[in-house]
């Protein structure tokens, strides 16, 4: 039951859970409440526009009774002048919450990541990791302090480093997307990154392997495999001499790891990197000799079927025999899909002596060989999963004999 007396330090010490509350005798509405947790909290009771308000002043552990009483008087004075102190407090609380997420690094981890996990769970790590690595110097900056000028300077530095325009544009657009969400959520009023113009570039670049280059790539794969086998044999001899457990022997299997099967699959199916890495054995139909790219994994969001030629069919069959209990086709160690093959791929390209050849170019290689073999562009479009023919037309110049035949029809 509440008691009425002047709130003092002694009165607070004597306050019991049964009494629970002290109503101060000096300031009307000023009171202290003791909770079962042991905490005692100061409150101020008043009416605002006819409504009852119980305004929290603070903890007794943080404020003396005298300090809390002075704050209560001050708040009553503000109320007398018509000020809505409760609304002010709510706004201050909202502002503190907003400021908490204003730091770019905190925003990425606490706000943007949870949002992406509900939208693009498979790419969230890549997106957040990309933003943190490319814009590391922004991580300790507030969102409203990231300016177009900052990004322009970053863009100039990346150009000097020789980074591809498409890569730079991707980074900038990813950053714009993150800040635009912050605007939608009311964390910042606006951002001026719309002033940062994307770099113009030719996205119709086609790079495919000549016959000589293809032989060099396959030879580099073979040499790499033999080197890994030799190292494994040497390591096992070392371990055997010391009575240690041996690593699995590689002399009786075709593939030493995932590199050769994934390169062969890319070269003979034209799948995108993401489509390859998400491929499962359930997507491959050996009796019918085709694989399926599910719409959920495809860029176009449409399911498509890719026939398997003898080369890739044999490679996948042997790779399956080596990984009988895996769900994903391309794994390393545990039965989890690969997330990146950049480092071994770059070493392979270097060993093969290939100039300006990316992993994605294996897709161009697949399409280019089809067109040069006389396959019509619409069939190529379907195999590549292009949404319209415009993207596929970049390969049209690789079939000059068809153009010549068409012109000769009116000769």
Number of strands: 10
How many helices does DSSP assign? 16
CATH topology of the largest domain: hpI Integrase, Chain A
Level-1 CATH class name of the largest domain: Mainly Alpha
Known CATH architecture of the largest domain: Orthogonal Bundle
- Element order: H for helix, E for strand: EHEEEEHHHHHHHHHEEEHEEHHHHH
Written account of the structure:
The protein is α+β, with helices and mostly antiparallel strands and 411 residues long. 49% of the residues lie in helices and 11% in strands. A 5-stranded mixed sheet has the order 1-2-3-4-5, with helices on one face. The chain has a 3-stranded antiparallel sheet with strand order 6-7-8, with no helix packed on it. Helix 9 crosses helix 13. The protein is elongated and about 105 Å long. The N and C termini lie far apart (109 Å). The mean pLDDT is 86.
Topology overview:
Blueprint: E1 3-4, H1 9-14, E2 21-23, E3 30-34, E4 40-48, E5 51-59, H2 65-80, H3 85-100, H4 104-119, H5 124-134, H6 148-160, H7 165-184, H8 211-241, H9 259-269, H10 273-277, E6 284-285, E7 290-293, E8 304-307, H11 310-322, E9 331-332, E10 334-337, H12 342-352, H13 361-372, H14 377-384, H15 389-392, H16 400-408
Parallel strand pairs: 1-2
Antiparallel strand pairs: 2-3, 3-4, 4-5, 6-7, 7-8, 9-10
Helix pairs in contact: 4-5, 8-12, 9-11, 9-13
